[in-house]
Design brief:
By secondary structure, the chain is of the alpha+beta class. The chain has 15 helices and 16 strands.
């Protein structure tokens, strides 16, 4: 196969949603970070072969947000731009799609990544209210409109929270948090273990902040500079963490806002290149994308998706977990990451679910999410898959490692994993 190289990467700070629309739309986030990334390249934006962007919930005025960004970034009318959506793995799917086109020789230089402004997820009208509005718009005279006004009730105006709808699986009718609760019950993961893991995520994110060249500061319309991942807590009190009430399955659930990923806005981009593009533009590869695997499972147990994707990916490449210098599993929930660790160390589970004769793990703790994860940094759904790949590359360079895997669970009952290797 033709090799695919990562030659540069950048992301925005990840900004925590705070109960109101954030300062940036999904396209604004991708524009500011993408512009900074392209300005430091030896080629022009119009030299790109295509732009591929993952986004799970673009705004109504951002349909095919990938094409919008290609145009706003100055790529010109002739550079195609398109959008992919695989829920939490949309950013990783964008990279995989770019890899496929490069390996086929259809593209040589691709800007790919993901973006999301979850704070701007729409608040909707109910079907009952939409039907009332439809009748109002088709009413022909004052009498009809008067009768409709008398039919309007306060219940009509109850909002439908789009974000909550999007985070609920329509097939099994469970929220993502409830699926994490299923895993906590299955593997007997305690609330204390989850909270301890959450503490570790914040501590690791504080200890290893991204390099300045990789995290692009943003300026909002009010002149404010946003240059840090503002969900990371510098002083997280374990006693206070333990008092947080369950966010799901109240009052006895164990999944709380403190041991779950944060609702966040952010964007992440990577520049991918073929051997020909590397030679033409004298680019310096940071890493190569070797392989990718997608898996599927019961949506009610979606958090185990990374294990189901990692196992065949490693087997196909003749590797074990211990051959990896770093591994990223998206921290959708502390329970979900801990369940993955329990699963791959369990002989019976690995035999029954993966067809293995021995456990897949364990994985040394210092190689798993060494810079923290979405519990501290946040989880802008469309961007996270790309951020995880960036984290693997950053860790390999920082530690002098060779190989790493980025992986994540995916709403709807899927898992994804990408194998990377630092270029010699």
């Amino acid at each position: 196969m033709r090799p695919v190289h990562v030659v540069d990467m950048a992301r925005t700070p990840f900004l925590k949603a705070r109960g109101r629309p954030g300062p940036f739309s999904a396209s604004d986030l991708a524009l500011q970070s993408g512009r900074a990334l392209l300005l430091r390249q030896p080629f022009l934006p119009r030299d790109l072969d295509e732009v591929i962007l993952g986004c799970a919930a673009p705004a109504p005025d951002e349909m095919n947000i990938g094409r919008i960004l290609a145009l706003r970034l100055g790529c010109g009318h002739k550079v195609p731009g398109w959008t992919v959506m695989r829920n939490c793995a949309s950013g990783m799917q964008a990279l995989d799609s770019a890899c496929s086109n490069i390996r086929l020789g259809r593209s040589h230089l691709v800007l790919a990544g993901g973006t999301e402004a979850l704070s701007r997820t729409p608040v909707l009208f109910s079907d009952r209210m939409v039907n009332w509005l439809s009748e109002w718009n088709t009413a022909c005279d004052l009498g009809q409109k008067s009768r409709l006004l008398f039919q309007l009730r306060p219940a009509h105006l109850k909002p439908v929270i789009g974000l909550l709808k999007g985070l609920t699986d329509p097939v099994v009718n469970l929220s993502m948090g409830q699926t994490a609760g299923n895993l906590a019950d299955m593997f007997r993961i305690s609330r204390k273990s989850m909270d301890d893991y959450a503490m570790q995520s914040h501590q690791r994110a504080l200890a290893f902040p991204p390099d300045a060249w990789m995290r692009i500061p943003l300026m909002s319309s009010d002149g404010r500079i946003h240059d840090t991942d503002d969900g990371v807590r510098k002083a997280l009190d374990p006693e206070k963490l333990a008092t947080l009430t369950p966010a799901f399955d109240k009052p006895y659930g164990q999944i709380t806002p403190g041991n779950s990923s944060q609702v966040t806005d952010g964007a992440a981009w990577l520049l991918l290149a073929s051997d020909e593009a590397v030679a033409r533009w004298d680019l310096k590869p940071l890493a190569s994308i070797l392989d990718v695997e997608w898996a599927a499972l019961d949506p009610a147990l979606m958090g185990l998706g990374p294990v189901l994707a990692i196992a065949p990916l490693l087997a196909r490449n003749g590797l074990t977990l211990m051959d990896l210098d770093t591994l990223e599993i998206n921290e959708a929930f502390a329970a979900q990451v801990l369940a993955c660790q329990e699963a791959w160390a369990d002989l019976d589970w690995c035999r029954e679910q993966l067809g293995l004769g021995a456990p897949l793990g364990p994985m040394p703790s210092d190689r798993l999410n060494p810079h923290g994860g979405a519990i501290a940094i946040g989880h802008p759904v469309g961007a996270t898959g790309a951020r995880l790949v960036m984290e693997v590359i950053r860790t390999l360079h920082a530690r002098g490692g060779r190989r790493g895997v980025a992986s994540l669970c995916i709403g709807g009952g899927q898992g994804g994993a990408m194998l990377l290797e630092v270029c010699a």
